[in-house]
Amino acid sequence: MYVAVKGGETAILNSYQRLAAKRRGELAVQELSIAQIRQQLRLAVDRVMTEGSVYDPELAALAIKQAAGDLIEAIFLLRAYRATLPRLGSSCPLDTAKMQLERRISATFKDVPGGQILGATYDYTQRLLDFSLLASGQEPSASPVSLPDEVSRQTPRVLDLLNSEGLIENQSPATGDPMPPDLTREPLRFPATRATRLQNLARADEGFMLALAYSTQRGYADSHPFVGEIRFGSVELMMDVEELAFPLSIGDLEITECEMVNQFAGSKTEPPQFTRGYGLAFGHSERKALAMSLVDRALRAEELGEAVSAPAQMQEFVLSHSDSLEASGFVQHLKLPHYVDFQSELELVRKMRAGNHS
Fold it and tell me: Percentage of residues in the chain with pLDDT exceeding 90?
């Protein structure tokens, strides 16, 4: 047994060296820098920050490099590092209405106060491979572009247009609204409040969220959504400091916010009106924010008196299976030795077969 354990340990150490060599690749090729990853793979960085629950582009880029581009592994690394950090305090709620916009679109109204701001998007590209990117050096399309003045202007929310007519539910915080639970410090319990659900969805795997969101539009939740507004830009992060009588600005965050508009037939206490789904993610993460807002609305089915029949409406199913790290860990643990378990099952099958033949 000692020899087997010793041999296994040596193999593992050799595996570490092999992994480092594979990650580096051919030495003749210039090594990828953290700055390059942060600047040129920004969408991957934003996803890792969101699902890793740490807003730090440099650390997210480092995790991507260390994980050789495996984003789930990078998220694991960032979350593990996050667990070592001390809690210095709590920030004030973000005032996203004051977001300095880089992109802002609405699919519900063509003309909106402040105008539509397309910004940088793949929405209107032809999805054809750009072979000019194979050439070394900086491609012409990457040259700096001067942005119009209105990009940095604050604009009113699109859904306020519906709210002014009473056509959409009002979700202003109630007086004495309690502090939301911290899912990173408290275990998930059911039934979960909406604040807890939103925290879970923000950290959830984007692919899983996308599949659930898609299912709600294909009849597995009877959802007919409209994008009220998607905003991408920077918002000021404020923090209360005991020594000061006013909140202190400690920096800016880039975030993506999505407000989804859904139909609602009304109930005994509420008239027919539109309802909301909400999504928010770090950085430029539109697909995640869209999917999150669709699933958020689906999970409100019981609250709104709707039948709960589809997977996306079942909070225990959604919240228990959405975390990429838990899912990945449980699936990948199958690669580890299960010799004893399998031998016991193998012996059981042999006995069952022997009994059938006797």
Answer: 57
